Amino acid sequence: MTTDDVSPGEFWFYEKHVPTAGIMLKVGELLACRRSRYQTIQLFDTADYGRVMTLDNLIMLTERDEFSYHEMLTHVPLLLHPQPRQVLVVGGGDGGVLREVIKHGTVERAVQVEIDREVVDVCREFFPWAAETYDNPRVELVIDDALKYIKTVRNEFDLVIVDSTDPVGPAIDLFGSPFYSDVYDALTADGLMTCQIDSPFYGSRRIGMIMDTLRDIFHDAGLYLTQVPSYPSGVWGLGIASKSRKNFHEPDKVRYDTLSGTLRYYNPDVHRGSFLLPEYLRRVVYRTGK
Amino acid sequence: MTTDDVSPGEFWFYEKHVPTAGIMLKVGELLACRRSRYQTIQLFDTADYGRVMTLDNLIMLTERDEFSYHEMLTHVPLLLHPQPRQVLVVGGGDGGVLREVIKHGTVERAVQVEIDREVVDVCREFFPWAAETYDNPRVELVIDDALKYIKTVRNEFDLVIVDSTDPVGPAIDLFGSPFYSDVYDALTADGLMTCQIDSPFYGSRRIGMIMDTLRDIFHDAGLYLTQVPSYPSGVWGLGIASKSRKNFHEPDKVRYDTLSGTLRYYNPDVHRGSFLLPEYLRRVVYRTGK
Fold it and tell me: In order of start, what are the domains of chain B with their CATH numbers?
């Protein structure tokens, strides 16, 4: 357990990002605490981050800052693809990615493959967007292991968005070369994949290795950043990989305009800016000298 | 005190960013703990952030991530100005900004006005760069209140870099309209000022108010962001204001090339990208509708 009672009568959640540093949040009401077949799911209220969901004691999302993560993981590939119709979401049982996907009128079908039905059930109960999103007729929820599911689809999806847990425990194979090869095969000819990777501050080595893997398999790959104050270091690295596209910097302005009233983080400027990496990270991602 | 002993035999530093959320760091050796005329100065070792200095229990810098803050506060204005020769640093007693300023061959004189000599003394003792920086013949250290000092200089500095503590307690007037007007008067005709402001996540209202103030006084002003994992939310807002310049996006490439081997965060791409703001922040900074 990473929750400690540090003074009488107060309940705090403490996530150790590394053994000697982390974030603390004062917990209000504990709303749900369930042990599923795969993991421990906790959901609680906080004063500054609203409702927070943890899986195996790691923060997956908070109501206060989930928008920056979900918008960037979703709208960057959707506005780069010329006409995204079929979208696959891997993981993401909270429904945040799906909620953003179905904002796009071009999307005819959004399939979500989540291994843990209890995550979906808890989120439907406690996050206001989730029930509405899952009830959308364009959404198909598949409860299955994405590693198996991805092998059953070929040349079918315009986009695959990998909103996995971190590469410790069950999700580790979602960061491996065999899975990314299956994603490549599941994509149509101009398909794109995005995936969450790691903190550039704590995990730049892992980011470098995954970027190498993606470039081996795909036509091109890039890294972009978003702000997530409740994640380790407050900044998060997202990967993008393509079957044919070389340039990730030019979103579709016309389709952006139809969404812009609903967005709090994404805009075409921050899309471009998110690929402009600080020097320490550019060296790792692009294996440049110096 | 914000340091708590949360389990027997371990010493942790806990900074509350707001009353119900914050960062925790496991403390190794406590290196210095002094009470100056102005504030409490603490310096301690940590496993993940190296040496950390706090003033009145707020983290001012850590060895691990100070580079992103100091490089962006310094090189953005220095590479925008056509020929920076005279530079004034307000605050910044740790010497990190000065260390970056004197990398520029154009700089003939760098004046640092720091109110608290004890901060300089502690940093000279414990941060490897500080003594060397302060001993540079182009550096002048003035121990004085910057609010008074700034009134004594007119049309003298090409750049003013305000590396203050946060706007609580003694530094509050360094965020006010009278001080910024004095900075304006202290600058030469094509002068620029940069200043640290706040976390975009926790302090977007303050950022908006300061941007309004800067635009009232200066020809133009902008906000840009840098990563500082040890600061609240991990991302920090920096302000820039100019006496004549309108465009903050075009750094001097030739002078950049002479520095690039020494830089870990700054590059011309991240310079441009740091001004491309997420939507929630763009609305606050530029007072756009929606």
Answer: 3-62 (2.30.140.10), 66-286 (3.40.50.150)
